[in-house]
Amino acid sequence: LIRRILTKYKIDFACNYFDDIIVYSSSELEHWKHLKTIFEICEKENIKLKLSKCVFAQTKISFLGYEIEKGKVSPNNANIETIKKLQPPTNVKELQRFLGSVNVYNKFIPQYAKLRYPLNQLLKKDVKFNWTNECQDAFDKLKETLTTKPVLNLYNPDVTCHVFVDASQKSVGAVLKQPDASDILHPIAYHSRTLRDYEKNYAITELECLAIVDALDKFYYYLHGQKFVIHTDHAALVWLKNVKNLRAHHPQTNGKVERVNQSLVTRLKCKVNSTSTKVPWTKLLESVTNEYNLTPHSITKYPPAYLLLGTLPYDSPIGQNSYYEPVNEARNLALQRTIDYHNKNKIRYDARFVDKKFNPGDLVVYEEFHYPNTRKLTPPFSGPYEVIKQCSEVTYEINKPNPLTKQATQIVHISKLRCFHSPDKLKLSHE
């Protein structure tokens, strides 16, 4: 109700949370004018205010567990004291209660995910609760970080944002900062999270790029529509600034464009060779393109031009003036027919190609990726390696060391694996 009323009167100097209203101003004189406006609105909308629950003209307020003062925000003292008195947990429930209390203020804690990583391991299923020295250190550091009363600046939409990102083998993190009048950067918010299992296989460049993507997603509401600067200590990511859009003369990296070009080339060959005068293909290109756009596709059953524009700009060249469904219905039918066609192709493929299943303990060889400058006589497979477990229907974990992540195992796709046959079994018997 309060929010609807503030929106109705287009109030831009107040906000609310349920029935709590905050009025903010840049000067005391302006503040009294804003309060007068709010009082008039409350009287007009029959909203009653209880004097004992109101405070006016404050330079510092406590709101929703935060203390807000002169463009800065920090955790509430009462909540910090409560967290400070917490004892080390003795079971999972107490650990969850502690992490829940701390997580409210995670944006105040640098490298939060990295600090709580040892505690996260105790929350996993089928893991015995064992409070180690590493867990105690993480517990103490989290409490210490909050009890030092970290302070964040409030976001200013008129100031350029700076995003600092970093990544490790366990987590990714980011800091959002903005400069003050002296061009000194101050933190607005911290963000970090632990890596998922499959993300731990990423190379360091991919992890640094993941940190950027994760930061842009987390700080979306701060950065959307604004100019901002990204800071990273990984020089290999600088090439992102130099990425150029593909041109028509270089369609090789766009499979859809290349496939359309193949269809057009086939039609142009037929047109050019069907005349004795050998008309140059450049003069035939426009008519061939129109024919392609106006001819019903073999899968969707609709001309591409109709699905794109909702109408046919010219009469169909093959004399098909049949009735087509409304464009929205036609697009849905075309999508469904495309999906059905893909499913039929999958059935045909699965009937001819069956991936072999492996069991834990089986020996396999791994098909290596060979770069263009690889020697011709380099073995195509490496191994043998032992299958540790099946992670999904198409992935297995094998004891092949990962040189990028320094882990002792790798999760690989089944298409890269082959059964290992011992040389002794391959010997021909001369008996």
UniProtKB/TrEMBL annotation:
Q: Where are the transmembrane segments?
A: none
- Pfam families reported for this sequence: Integrase_p58_C, RT_RNaseH_2, RVT_1
Q: Provide the GO biological process annotations.
A: DNA integration
Q: Which CDD domains did the record assign?
A: RNase_HI_RT_Ty3 (cd09274)
Origin superkingdom: Eukaryota
UniProt KW keywords: Endonuclease, Hydrolase, Multifunctional enzyme, Nuclease, Nucleotidyltransferase, RNA-directed DNA polymerase, Transferase
Q: Which SUPFAM superfamilies match?
A: DNA/RNA polymerases
A GO term for molecular function: nucleic acid binding
Q: Which residues form the Integrase catalytic domain?
A: 146-312
Which positions make up the signal peptide? none
EC number assigned by the record: 2.7.7.49
Is Ion transport found in the keyword set? no
> Where is each Reverse transcriptase domain found?
1-68
* Protein name in the entry: RNA-directed DNA polymerase
According to its UniProt entry, this protein's organism is Araneus ventricosus (Orbweaver spider)
| Taxon lineage | Eukaryota, Metazoa, Ecdysozoa, Arthropoda, Chelicerata
Point out the gene that encodes the protein: TY3B-G_489
